[in-house]
Design goal:
Shape: elongated
Radius of gyration: 37 Å
Helix content: 10-25%
Order of helices and strands: HEEEEEEEEEEEEHEEHEHHH
Distance between the termini: 104 Å
């Protein structure tokens, strides 16, 4: 056993040192990939452009119901933008396909008379009304390289229309070509330089410039800013290769509120919807996690013939806001993203530094212990062997000088019994356990929405299937969008608005 123990310790020491070398080379690259269990929901609310708190109506939106009235109207509003990003097929060890479902909800409005209103939540079935609280809804899908987070072109599409029952969502989606920029995360080991960022509203890559370094909730982040130039949204086709609803609108000049030289009140005037965005992103550089975000969005109607001298000046100079607001991540979202980024960073640091260091130190200690035990055992064997020889010489000398040789029968003297014992070394090694990854939680109606339909005494568990079918996930509308491939249930997208037939001059 004395000879076995040093060998065991030496084996374990070599194994630990080998692992210390292999872990950074094998484990860390496995950690620096887009995870296949990604499921992140972020919330952003409309805030004042100057950052001042307490503004209940920091946004301006176009009143869709005004298309049926005598004049165009805008409303002051408070909005919530929610995005849920999950992994769907096709995904494997090389690529990950991200499905990002996004909704913009109207929380409350105030008209020109100062009257406040809370828009109703649309039901899960039936047609949307112009005063419903869902402003927009879309589903973006993009496949990225798991190591670089760069789009690889396998899947790149956006769905802005509801898929009828039995219809493949691909048939009502627009294929997006030449997408190159990052979007839902930046690359691992992000540098202090400019990157391409994809803007879904205008469907184009823009340059995100490095601004500086900031610390958010104890996490060091890199601040990037991208400015999307003015884009005519009517030039972005829908699945039928036509201008999307609400991006072109032809109404009488009186309805627009346009008057002046060369303009008749009943003259039909066509306006296109344009958009610009200034976007700020705060990224944890080691993992590429977006910790905080801010978007200054401005969409407005104006004439597409602005540079045409034949167009009356009153038409060329006209603007009507369709959406003007600043969206900013909520404090809860920023805290959650910072926690996730810190956790990912700790995992990488553990695999790249601490684990190899600990394994290397343990391996060196085990090898040193093995050498010491081997040398001590060797010295002990030499000492024991030398004492036996001296005792034998003394016996022979005593026999020759002091003992008289007498003839007598042969006798055998029993050898002394060996009473020493060597207790075996027992190493108690804890067993590792691996918890299975939890499956994504199924879509469920939230408690706050259920409370609208049940009495105070009714327990949550008694929520009926009929109520389940008719309820609407108002607090988390994107949770209604399932994590599936293939035909999907109806998504309550924005019906938006369109010109109505007949005279609108009343």
């Amino acid at each position: 056993m004395k000879r076995v123990l040093p060998a065991v310790l030496a084996f374990l020491g070599v194994a630990c040192i080998t692992a210390a070398i292999a872990v950074p080379l094998w484990l860390v690259p496995q950690l620096k990939v887009v995870p296949l269990d990604l499921d992140i929901t972020t919330n952003a609310t409309s805030v004042s452009a100057d950052g001042s708190p307490g503004d209940r109506f920091p946004a301006v939106i176009f009143d869709r119901c005004s298309v049926n009235e005598s004049r165009a109207r805008t409303l002051q509003a408070h909005l919530t933008q929610q995005r849920r990003s999950v992994i769907v097929d096709p995904s494997d060890r090389r690529q990950a396909t991200i499905q990002a479902a996004q909704t913009v909800r109207i929380d409350r409005t105030r008209d020109a008379n100062g009257d406040e209103n809370v828009p109703p939540a649309p039901a899960s079935g039936g047609e949307l009304e112009c005063d419903d609280g869902l402003l927009t809804a879309s589903i973006d899908k993009v496949s990225v390289n798991r190591k670089t987070s760069v789009p690889n072109g396998t899947v790149s599409s956006v769905q802005v229309e509801a898929a009828p029952e039995g219809v493949d969502p691909k048939d009502v989606s627009v294929q997006l070509t030449n997408r190159q920029g990052f979007q839902y995360k930046f690359p691992f080991n992000t540098k202090k330089r400019a990157y391409l960022y994809y803007d879904l509203n205008s469907r184009q890559d823009t340059e995100a410039k490095f601004v500086g370094v900031e610390t958010i909730d104890g996490v060091e982040t890199y601040h990037f800013q991208t400015q999307v130039p003015e884009k005519d949204l009517s030039s972005l086709p829908n699945p039928q290769n036509e201008a999307a609803l609400g991006t072109m609108l032809t109404m009488p000049a009186r309805w627009w509120g346009i008057s002046g030289r060369g303009v008749r009140p009943t003259q039909q005037v066509s306006m296109h919807r344009y958009a610009t965005v200034t976007r700020d992103l705060w990224v944890e550089p080691q993992t590429g996690t977006i910790v905080d975000g801010r978007e200054d969005q401005h969409q407005y109607f104006r004439s597409p013939y602005q540079d045409d001298e034949a167009t009356p000046a009153a038409v060329r100079e006209f603007r009507l806001d369709a959406l003007k607001t600043t969206f900013e991540f909520t404090d809860a979202t920023v805290s959650e993203q910072a926690t996730k980024a810190a956790g990912y960073k700790d995992e990488i640091r553990l695999g790249g530094f601490w684990l190899p260091l600990i394994l290397g130190v343990v391996g060196a200690v085990l090898l040193l212990a093995a050498v010491l035990l081997f040398l001590r055992g060797r010295r002990a064997r030499r000492r024991d062997g030398g004492d036996d020889d001296n005792d034998l010489d003394d016996d022979l000398e005593n026999t020759d000088s002091d003992t008289e040789i007498v003839d007598r029968p042969d006798t055998t003297e029993d050898a002394p019994e060996y009473t020493g014992s060597e207790e075996p070394t027992v190493v108690d090694r804890p067993r590792g356990s691996h918890a299975e990854a939890a499956a994504a939680a199924p879509t469920a109606v939230i408690a706050s929405q259920r409370a609208r339909h049940r009495s105070p005494a009714e327990p949550v568990d008694e929520w009926s299937d009929e109520d389940e079918a008719n309820a609407y996930l108002w607090d988390s509308p994107t949770q209604r969008i399932p994590r599936v491939e293939g035909p999907a249930p109806k998504i309550d997208g924005d019906e938006d608005f369109r010109p109505v037939d007949g005279d609108q001059s009343r």
